[in-house]
Specification:
Helix 2 packs antiparallel against helix 3. This protein is about 60% helix and about 5% strand. It has 14 helices and 4 strands. The radius of gyration is 68 Å and the shape is elongated. By secondary structure, it is an alpha+beta fold. The protein has a 4-stranded antiparallel sheet with strand order 1-2-3-4. It starts with 7 loop residues before the first helix and ends with a helix.
Length: about 475
C-alpha cells in the first residue's frame, strides 16, 4: 500500500481526532484551566514522542500513516502549547494590571499610615519635652500669696496675662518679683553712693587720726615744763605704765610692789624703768613665738610606746663653761627697774638721796640680780652684802639655776649686780632652802638660841618691801656715818 492511500478506518480516526478540535486545531475544553491544559498537553506530547521512538526502534516496515498521524498530532499539540502559553501570558498581564490597580490605594493608605505614625511620634516627643521641661520658676524664692496680695501694686494685680487662673497668678507673682528686684537694684545703687561718700569721709578721718599721734606727742612734749611746774606727773606716769607692760613677770612684781608701797604708805622712794622699749617688744614677740613652737613640739612628742613613754633619740648635750656666755645663759632682759631710795627724815628729796638700786632679770636662769648703781666700792663695803643672814649674793639662790649653770659662777669684775635671796622674794620667786633652818637651830647652843630664832623671823620677813627698805637705809646711813 502506498503512502498516499488511506484506508477507510484511518480516515474515520482522523475525522474523530479532528472532531475534538476547533477550527484552529485547539482542544475544546471550557472546564480546564490553561495550567491544567498545559499539563495535559505536555503528557500527550510525551506519549506521542515515546510512541514515535518505539516505532523507529522497530525494524519492520514503518507504518507511514501512523507516523504521519503522530506528527500531525504533535503539531497540533505544539499549537495548543503556543495557545496555552499566550493565554497564560495574557492572564499574567491581566493579573499584574489588576495587582497594580489594587496596589495603588494600598500604597496610598500605607503612606498615610506612615505619615500619621511620624506625626504621632512628633507630638509624643513634644508632649514629653513639655512634661520634662524644668523652668526657673521653682528655683526663684517667691513671696507667699498672702504677702503678694497685700503688697502687690494695682497695675500688676489688675493685669490679665493668661486664661488659666493658676498660670495667671504665677505670672503675676513673677512680675511682682521682677518689680521688687528692680526696686532693690535702685536701692543698691543709692546705698553704694552713700557707701562711697562714707568711705571718703572715713579715709579723711583716718588720715587725720594717723597724724594725730605726732601732734599729741608734740603737745605732750610742749606741756612737760608746765606739768613739772605744777607738779602734775600724769604723762610720765602713763609712760611708765606703758613701759611696765613690757617688763618680765619678776621685774613687774618688784615694780608693782614698790609702787604700791610708795602710794599706800608714802614711802620716800622713786621708780624708773630704763632700757630700750624697741628691744623689749622684739624680745616679747620672740618669746611668744618660742612658746608657740615649744607647745607644738610637746603636742607632737606624746607617748606612743606600750608603757606610755617615749625615749629621746638624742641625749641632751651639756654645755661647757666657755660656751655659757656665748649661748646667752646670762642673758639680761632689755628693761631694768631703778629704785631711788631717799632719807625719810629729810623733807627735800634732792638732798636726801641715799642710794640707787638697779634690778636686772636673767632670762635663762629666772633670777633677779640687784646692785648699787655706779658703785665702785669693794665687796666689803657693799651695803647689800649680808643684808639678811647668809645672803652674800655670790652664789645662785636656788638649786635649779646652779644645776643649769654647772661649774660657772656669778663672780665677775664687770658685773655689779648680784642674785640676793631677798631680791628673789621681792620678785615673787619662792624656793626651798638647800638646808633646813632647824638644822642650824639644833647645832647652836641654848645660849644663842634666841639669836637664831630672831634671825629666822627676820629671814621670814625679808620678802616685805618695808623691811628691805629699812635695812637698806640703815646700812647706807651707817656707811655715810663712817665716812
Amino acid at each position: 500500500m502506498e503512502d498516499g492511500d488511506r484506508t477507510e478506518e484511518e480516515e474515520v480516526d482522523v475525522q474523530v481526532v479532528n472532531d475534538d478540535k476547533d477550527e484552529l486545531g485547539f482542544p475544546l475544553s471550557d472546564e480546564e484551566s490553561p495550567y491544567e491544559l498545559l499539563q495535559n498537553t505536555k503528557v500527550s506530547v510525551e506519549n506521542i514522542i515515546a510512541e514515535i521512538l518505539s516505532i523507529k526502534n522497530q525494524r519492520k516496515t514503518k507504518p507511514f500513516l501512523r507516523m504521519r498521524e503522530l506528527v500531525t498530532q504533535m503539531f497540533l499539540h505544539l499549537v495548543t502549547l503556543r495557545q496555552v502559553n499566550r493565554c497564560i501570558l495574557v492572564e499574567e498581564e491581566f493579573v499584574k494590571t489588576e495587582t497594580e490597580r489594587a496596589k495603588a490605594p494600598l500604597d496610598f493608605t500605607t503612606q498615610q499610615l506612615h505619615n500619621l505614625m511620624y506625626e504621632k511620634s512628633h507630638y509624643v516627643k513634644a508632649v514629653k519635652a513639655c512634661n520634662d521641661f524644668k523652668s526657673k520658676c521653682p528655683e526663684i524664692e517667691l513671696v507667699n500669696e498672702e504677702e503678694f496680695f497685700r503688697d502687690v501694686p494695682q497695675h500688676i494685680k489688675g493685669s490679665v496675662l493668661s486664661n488659666h487662673s493658676a498660670h495667671n497668678l504665677m505670672l503675676k507673682r513673677l512680675n511682682f518679683e521682677l518689680f521688687q528686684r528692680k526696686e532693690l537694684c535702685k536701692l543698691r545703687k543709692k546705698l553704694e553712693q552713700q557707701k562711697k561718700s562714707l568711705l571718703e569721709t572715713i579715709a579723711n578721718r583716718k588720715k587725720f587720726l594717723s597724724s594725730l599721734p605726732s601732734h599729741l606727742k608734740s603737745l605732750k612734749k610742749a606741756s612737760l615744763p608746765v606739768q613739772n611746774q605744777l607738779g602734775v606727773q600724769d604723762t610720765k606716769k602713763l609712760m611708765r605704765h606703758h613701759s611696765a607692760e613690757l617688763l618680765p613677770p619678776p621685774l613687774y612684781v618688784i615694780y608693782s610692789q614698790l609702787l604700791a608701797q610708795k602710794v599706800a604708805f608714802g614711802e620716800s622712794i622713786d621708780l624708773e624703768i630704763i632700757g630700750s622699749l624697741k628691744d623689749a617688744q622684739a624680745f616679747a614677740h620672740h618669746q611668744a613665738r618660742k612658746d608657740t613652737v615649744e607647745s607644738s613640739k610637746l603636742e607632737d612628742d606624746e607617748p606612743d610606746d606600750e608603757d606610755g613613754q617615749r625615749w629621746s633619740k638624742r641625749p641632751r648635750r651639756v654645755q661647757g663653761k666657755e660656751s655659757l656666755d656665748q649661748a646667752g645663759i646670762f642673758q639680761i632682759h632689755p628693761l631694768k627697774v631703778t629704785l631711788h631710795v631717799y632719807d625719810d627724815e629729810v623733807s627735800v628729796l634732792e638732798s636726801a638721796k641715799l642710794t640707787t638700786l638697779k634690778f636686772e632679770y636673767l632670762v635663762q636662769l629666772n633670777v633677779i640680780c640687784v646692785g648699787v648703781d655706779a658703785s665702785n666700792d669693794g665687796r666689803e663695803n657693799d651695803i647689800l652684802c649680808n643684808l639678811f643672814p647668809d645672803d652674800t649674793g655670790l652664789q645662785l639662790p636656788h638649786q635649779s639655776a646652779k644645776l643649769f649653770v654647772g661649774d660657772a659662777t656669778m663672780s665677775n669684775d664687770d658685773r655689779t649686780s648680784r642674785p640676793y635671796k631677798w631680791a628673789q622674794h621681792l620678785a615673787g620667786i619662792d624656793f626651798l632652802p638647800e638646808v633646813s633652818p632647824l638644822m642650824f637651830a639644833s647645832r647652836e647652843t641654848s645660849d644663842n638660841s634666841e639669836d637664831v630664832i630672831s634671825s629666822l623671823s627676820q629671814y621670814r620677813q625679808q620678802n616685805r618691801v618695808q623691811t628691805v627698805l629699812q635695812r637698806i637705809r640703815s646700812r647706807r646711813k651707817a656707811q655715810l656715818a663712817r665716812l
